[in-house]
Amino acid sequence: MNAASTPLLLLGTHQPGWLGKAGVPLFVSDTRLRVYKTLPRASMPWGCDSGGFSELQRFGRWTIGPHEYAARLRRYHDEIGHLSWAAPQDWMCEPIVINGGQAGPIRFAGTHLPVAEHQRRTVLNFAQLRDLAPDLPIAPVVQGWEADDYLRCVDLYDRMIGVDVTTASLVGVGSVCRRQGTAEAGRILRALHARGVRRLHGFGFKTLGLIAHGHLLTSADSLAWSDVARKLRRPALPECATAGRHKNCANCLPYALHWRTRVLAAAARPAPQPACDLEAAA
Most buried pick, 70, 92, 169, 230, via CB within 10 A? Predict the structure, then answer.
């Protein structure tokens, strides 16, 4: 992969205030924005995450209706500005999301619905949001678990609501975050390309995933920098430590920008570095 094929990387953040000062494209969740009475003004294009993973993880269903979500997207579009695109209220298809259970400290309620029903609800929600806000840049998301599932979801958009996602300016690929560096993720992305769905966004892609599959993506988002700073106990940047700002940089803009630069440089290289995950080195 070369620099020309490196995807646009939206920096995930828990800090909506960065929209006005980061100077790079951001990916911010509705769950963070919805509590703001006065919203920041964006200085760069940004993407809005619907917060679907947290909803299904905690409740096993969506507790927010499409009318409420569409109204908030309208507000973000008008008051923040520069909204490049927004994710719909899709239904992730990871087995633990469907079956429920424990993943480390996180408990999943479980939807206890089949993959096909998750796909149907994902497509239906996109149609509802499109009808409620046809002028807003809401991107379709294809969901599934196996590669063939995603192709069936492509067909479902056409059969259910008459939408040809091969013509969409961007299509999100759901349920790949936890295996974005694997061969299976590559098979899914290549299968979508072969079907004609080529302008893809990868949710939650990290360094290894971008190195391996970035040439198949138009864009990706990542909040991995915060986990690296917090969970791996990386020390604060020297300038942060000297100023006594914080013990780690899990919510630090200079650290996040530094991480993003390193990831983009790694993703532009022609091959992965063996055993050296740059997230650990960030």
Answer: 92
Q: What is the pLDDT of residues 116-161, one digit of tens each?
A: 999 999 999 999 999 999 999 999 999 999 999 999 999 999 999 9
The alpha-helical segments, DSSP class H, found in the chain are 30-33, 52-59, 66-75, 95-99, 115-132, 147-161, 183-195, 207-213, 224-231, 238-243, 253-267, 278-281
Model pLDDT, residue 181:
82
Residues paired with 169 in a beta bridge? none
Among 126, 41, 67, smallest CA distance to 91 is for 126
- Asked if the model's pLDDT at residue 60 lies above 90, the reply is yes
Please tell me whether residue 200 adopts helix, strand or coil conformation.
strand
Give the β-pairing of 8-13 and 219-222: parallel
pTM over 0.85: yes
Question: Is the separation of the CB atoms in 202 and 178 below 8 Å?
Answer: no
Which amino acid would we find at residue 196? Answer: G
SS3 assignment, position 69: helix
Instruction: Give the integer Cα–Cα distance in Å for 8 and 59.
Output: 32
Average pLDDT over residues 68-74: 98
Q: What are phi and psi of 184, to 5 degrees?
A: -65, -40
Single out the residue of 269, 273, 274, 235 nearest to residue 255, CA to CA.
Answer: 235
Going along the chain from its start, the domains and CATH numbers come out as 3-281 (3.20.20.105)
Residues belonging to the chain: 282
